[in-house]
Amino acid sequence: MSTAFDLTDASAEFLAAPLRLTIDLGALADNWRDMARRSGKARTAAVVKADAYGLGIEDVGQTLYRAGARDFFVAVPSEGATLRPYAPEARIFVLSGIWPGMEEMFFENDLVPVIASEEQLTFWMSILAERGDYPCALQVDTGFNRLGLPLDDALALADDVSRPASFSPVLVLSHLACGDDPSSPMNRLQLESFRRVSTAFEGIDSSLSASAGTFLGPEYHFDLTRPGIALYGGEAVNGMKNPMRPVATAEARVLQVRDARVDEAVGYGAVSRLTRDSRLAIASVGYADGYLRSLSGRGVPLRDTGIAGGYGFIAGHRIPVIGRITMDLTIFDVTDLPRNAIAAGDYVELFGNNLPVDDVARAAGTIGYELLTGLGLRHERHYVEAL
Ligand SMILES: *Cc1c(COP(=O)(O)O)cnc(C)c1O
């Protein structure tokens, strides 16, 4: 498979860009519908924090809204403000909660804070005393030790008859630590704790699972699932064949193809010595674009662990990175390609339809989430419209 999407309506800027990112909005909408089907009776939210995992919160938000999503999660309020015009009737939850000075941003954009600590709860109660009824969500910690009220405090709050009537959470949520590992005993422990929370807050919607937890089965769905990475085509569960459609394809222009001789050195530190006469393709992408230095062929600490280096895809072939990745440029070894297969000006795929983002991430010693959210600012984006 080569470029499988339609570039006929791509802009001139995109077609000539040194770095291109194509986002398949049809695949995105399909992935949301797929997760909605897997969520059974539960509603399905869309997590669009970090600029929709690097793919653009405006276009992604609008596409998911049109597909039917009415619950969105962002990390910080400014993301919610950006999303609001694209998801007019949706509930937008802000996972980092609310702090003094942010109230107007929440009220003006109709954002729902996810109260995640004692301090935030106290502050929220003081706001309600002034302003009256306004929705919020409550995050409860069930074993992650990241954000959330401690379990016992949450259960006590549920039973507290003296709490103000204006305090009206619309959702209680918690987050799984090991949802990506179906065999982990943590999942069931957290499930049991969260059942107590859900029962204590009877009549209020509850939500436990992100992408990975949604695959653990109906017990984990409660009233609302919160997929993020699966919508963007990433792997949610370790060791499971990824059922999602790829959404993002990143490509870099080949600026030069050059011949080099056996025994010559390649790149910074001269850490790669050629063992044969070689052809090298110099591509317009580097670590400033989120093409992580740990993808280098040689000369970075990760290579000493035995994990192989990164590779790109061009003209039907996987081509290895050679030498150290630099800020703006990466060198690929194209010696094994037929002599006329590629030329300067062609594009090498960094990940996407032909190279799963998670395979590339593994070569970098990381996860697809980090590769997507770290894409940098130099990619020219092209959105393939959902039909
Ligand atoms: C990021 C996040 C999600 C989405 O997680 P994925 O693994 O990308 O599906 C859901 N819930 C919370 C609380 C999160 O922080």
Automatic annotation (TrEMBL):
SUPFAM superfamilies: Alanine racemase C-terminal domain-like, PLP-binding barrel. Transmembrane segments: none annotated. One of its GO terms (molecular function) is alanine racemase activity. GO terms for biological process: D-alanine biosynthetic process. Its EC number is 5.1.1.1. It catalyses: L-alanine = D-alanine. Residues 247-384 form the Alanine racemase C-terminal domain. InterPro entries: Ala_racemase, Ala_racemase/Decarboxylase_C, Ala_racemase_C, Ala_racemase_N, Ala_racemase_pyridoxalP-BS, PLP-binding_barrel. GO terms for cellular component: cytosol. Pathway: Amino-acid biosynthesis; D-alanine biosynthesis; D-alanine from L-alanine: step 1/1. The modification N6-(pyridoxal phosphate)lysine is found at residue 49. Its cofactor is pyridoxal 5'-phosphate. Keywords: Isomerase, Pyridoxal phosphate. It is an enzyme of class 5 (isomerase). The active site is at residues 49, 268. Substrate binds at residues 146, 327. Belongs to the alanine racemase family. Catalyzes the interconversion of L-alanine and D-alanine. May also act on other amino acids. This is Alanine racemase. It comes from Rhizobium terricola. The lineage of its organism: Bacteria, Pseudomonadati, Pseudomonadota, Alphaproteobacteria, Hyphomicrobiales.
